[in-house]
């Protein structure tokens, strides 16, 4: 029933008031991560992007550990045990600064730690997870190969038995944190199918090489992993893995973070454009007052709001135990595309200033080129959604 009072005007930064749907714990996570991101990360991110690296990744990992962000959605072993929505909100606030920063947290928590948590032995969990939760130990996840991206089942990395040991040979590509990692979760073909292995990076035969000259995701450490006769005991094998599905389930955890992260990148670009157009004066008035500018801003706020709605809904499904991997594909497919539209429009509204690192929009725009293709390209997720709605698989 209407009380007759005039409703408040929409908040330009949260048009439909979606953040009012967050509970107290989720708001606390949002405010804590946002404050840290703005005070500690944002002042340096342009410099890191320009340099093409994160200068002190171990210091950053420790800071994330102190905030409880590493493996925050896992239970025990020093992990925070938060809700999926809380984890998503953290990813959104981190990627509002930069996709590379969110990737650091996602790879540690949703790939390396999640693989150990879900598929490792209790000894493996006790050995690695507490240190990874605090940031004292950095992990990476070796699945993608130079010739096996969208089709990881065609990987050439091979693990063969030799007595009671395993010998691993192969190459992994595009591995976040690879050169600073203390432990790598590596996936390999065996005579029994795909298996996962926990590889300390000081093991003889293991080498990580920095991938340079990237034009996207520059504030991130990306590596090639080379395994040449790496010998491991059978205790290094993840005992609960029986096929490629285990690796793909870990990817689904990380993709969930991307659903929220893309929403953060979109929101950051929209906020920058709204601020810039409100202060940039041409022809005697702010350019935000022109019709074509307002149309762009209207399109942007719709995309930003849709992305937030999608992320929140999938998060609620995940917390209720009702999130299918097709839901996550829907979210990545929709939200990355929305973020790309917003970033492109924001770049245009900034004019020539939009191509500089003084403003965040071009940095987000090129980062999203990577986000669109890693952990499942746009095409792969479109086909996943297509299979879900038709019941027919177009994959071989």
Could you please say which CATH topology of the largest domain applies here?
Butyryl-CoA Dehydrogenase, subunit A, domain 3
Q: If strands are numbered along the chain, what order do they take across the biggest sheet?
A: 4-5-9-8
The largest sheet, given as strand count, sense and whether it forms a barrel, is: 4 strands, antiparallel
Separate helix tally: 10
Order of helices and strands: HHEEHHHEEEEEEEHEEHHHH
**Low-pLDDT segments, ≥5 res:** none
Q: What class, by secondary structure content?
A: alpha+beta
The CATH homologous superfamily of the largest domain corresponds to: Butyryl-CoA Dehydrogenase, subunit A, domain 3
Distance between the termini: 55 Å
Shape: globular
Beta-strand proportion: 15-25%
**What's the architecture of the largest domain, going by CATH?**
Up-down Bundle
Keywords: FAD, Flavoprotein, Oxidoreductase, Transit peptide
Domain Acyl-CoA dehydrogenase/oxidase C-terminal: 243-389
Cofactor: FAD
Domain Acyl-CoA oxidase/dehydrogenase middle: 140-230
């Amino acid at each position: 029933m209407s009380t007759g009072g005039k409703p408040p005007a929409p908040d330009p930064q949260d048009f439909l008031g979606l953040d009012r749907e967050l509970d107290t714990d989720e708001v606390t996570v949002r405010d804590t991560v946002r404050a840290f991101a703005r005070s500690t990360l944002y002042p340096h991110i342009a410099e890191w992007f320009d340099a093409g690296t994160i200068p002190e990744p171990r210091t950053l990992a420790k800071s994330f550990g102190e905030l409880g962000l590493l493996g925050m959605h896992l239970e025990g072993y020093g992990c925070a045990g938060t809700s999926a929505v809380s984890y998503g909100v953290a990813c959104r606030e981190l990627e509002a600064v930069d996709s590379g920063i969110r990737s650091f947290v996602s790879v540690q928590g949703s790939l390396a730690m999640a693989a150990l948590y879900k598929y490792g032995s209790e000894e493996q969990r006790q050995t690695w997870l507490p240190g990874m939760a605090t940031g004292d130990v950095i992990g990476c996840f070796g699945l993608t190969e130079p010739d096996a991206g969208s089709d990881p089942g065609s990987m050439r990395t091979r693990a063969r038995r030799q007595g009671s040991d395993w010998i691993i040979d192969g190459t992994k590509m595009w591995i976040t944190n690879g050169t600073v990692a203390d432990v790598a979760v590596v996936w390999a073909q065996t005579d029994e199918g795909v298996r996962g292995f926990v590889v300390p990076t000081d093991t003889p035969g293991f080498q990580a090489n920095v991938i340079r000259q990237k034009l996207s995701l520059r504030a991130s450490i990306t590596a090639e992993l080379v395994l040449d006769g790496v010998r491991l005991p059978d205790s290094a094998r993840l005992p609960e893995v029986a096929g490629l599905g285990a690796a793909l389930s870990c990817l689904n955890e990380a993709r969930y973070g991307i659903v929220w992260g893309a929403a953060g990148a979109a929101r950051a670009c929209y906020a920058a454009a709204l601020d810039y157009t409100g202060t940039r004066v041409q022809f005697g008035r702010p350019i935000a007052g022109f019709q074509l500018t307002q149309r762009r801003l209207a399109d942007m706020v719709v995309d930003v709001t849709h992305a937030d709605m999608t992320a929140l809904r999938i998060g609620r499904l995940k917390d209720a135990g009702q999130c299918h991997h097709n839901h996550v594909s829907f979210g990545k497919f929709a939200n990355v595309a929305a973020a790309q539209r917003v970033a492109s429009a924001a770049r245009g509204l900034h004019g020539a200033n939009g191509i500089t690192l003084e403003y965040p929009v071009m940095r987000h725009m090129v980062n999203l080129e990577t986000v669109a293709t890693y952990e499942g390209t746009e095409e792969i997720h479109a086909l996943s959604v297509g299979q879900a709605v038709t019941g027919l698989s177009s994959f071989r």
